[in-house]
Design a protein that fits this description.
By secondary structure, the protein is of the alpha+beta class. The chain has helices spanning 23-28, 63-72, 80-86, 139-151, 165-168, 213-224, 264-274, and strands at 2-8, 31-37, 50-55, 76-77, 103-105, 118-122, 132-134, 156-160, 170-176, 179-186, 206-208, 231-238, 244-250.
Length: 276
């Protein structure tokens, strides 16, 4: 029997509530999967036939340490080079698909409130932490948010708030080994300025969704352009004209929402087994 690790963090050593859904389907394929905390010095990563990055959601404040760990793991998916590129959201500027308009502000660069509603977040983050929604009455809070991130050496992303999310929500499309698996709707999450969040992520309202033809076309084309990731999540929001815009391409530790499609755990298990 092959043995793999599902890499997680110390705050959830047994993974989240949905990740264990893949354990049974993997066992049926002759694969035993065990959770292992990524920064636990007692773990011998070379003992596993494969390590699959999953709920390593505490990496953002220690990105360089995390990247060093990914480079040391002998058999890691998604691989270390992908992790390094995808954990800094400046990758959005290099993608050849419609993306939410974004201005990047490195430490020392001036912030000017754009008018209307807008979103501020750091380029290195997970779980929507350090992310806020601002309007014209919130410019002082927004400036303080930027200053706080810049003081920590973090680059800031400035994006318009896409009001379609209030009704349509986000669409997240999940792909395993390049093949479309399923999709979910994520309800609106940003209710106002960032005032801090307890825990590893902000709460989410998730329901199953059938993506539109335009969403599938964008997601399929984007994933086809990648170098064969084990998993990919494509997060989309309708733009002002209703066409989908990419919010994020998640290739490191995204929630896969395995509990929102009955066939998803088995599809993910088959994708992992195919890499063995």
């Amino acid at each position: 029997m092959k043995v793999i690790s599902l890499a997680t963090c110390s705050a959830m050593p047994d993974l989240d509530e949905e990740e264990p859904l893949v354990l049974g389907p993997l066992a049926e394929l002759g694969v035993r999967a065990v959770p292992a905390v990524w920064d636990d010095p007692a773990v011998d990563w070379s003992a596993f036939d494969l390590t699959v990055l999953r709920t390593t959601w505490d990496y953002a404040p220690r990105r360089e340490e995390f990247l060093a760990w990914t480079r040391a793991v002998p058999r890691l998916l998604n691989p270390a080079a992908t992790v390094e590129a995808n954990t800094d959201k400046r990758y959005l500027a290099a993608l050849d698909v419609p993306v939410v308009p974004t201005v990047f502000l490195a430490p020392g660069e001036a912030f000017t409130a754009p008018g209307g509603e807008y979103v501020l977040k750091p380029t290195v983050s997970a779980g929507s932490l350090d992310t806020g929604r601002y309007g014209p009455a919130d410019d002082a809070l927004a400036a303080a948010h930027v200053a706080r991130l810049h003081a920590a050496g973090r680059t800031v992303m400035l994006q318009p708030y896409l009001t379609a999310v209030d009704d349509a929500g986000e669409t997240a499309l999940l792909y395993f080994n390049g093949e479309y698996s399923h999709a979910i709707r994520k309800g609106p999450m940003l209710t106002g300025p960032d005032l801090g969040t307890e825990g590893l992520f902000k709460g989410e309202n998730i329901t199953p969704r059938v993506p539109s033809g335009a969403e599938r076309a964008l997601g399929d084309a984007l994933v086809a352009s990648l170098d064969a990731p084990l998993y990919a999540r494509v997060d989309l929001i309708p733009g002002p004209d209703g066409s989908p815009l990419l919010v994020e391409l998640e290739l490191v530790e995204p929630s896969l929402f395995l509990g929102h499609d009955p066939g998803a755990p088995a599809r993910f298990a088959r994708a992992i087994a195919a890499r063995l």
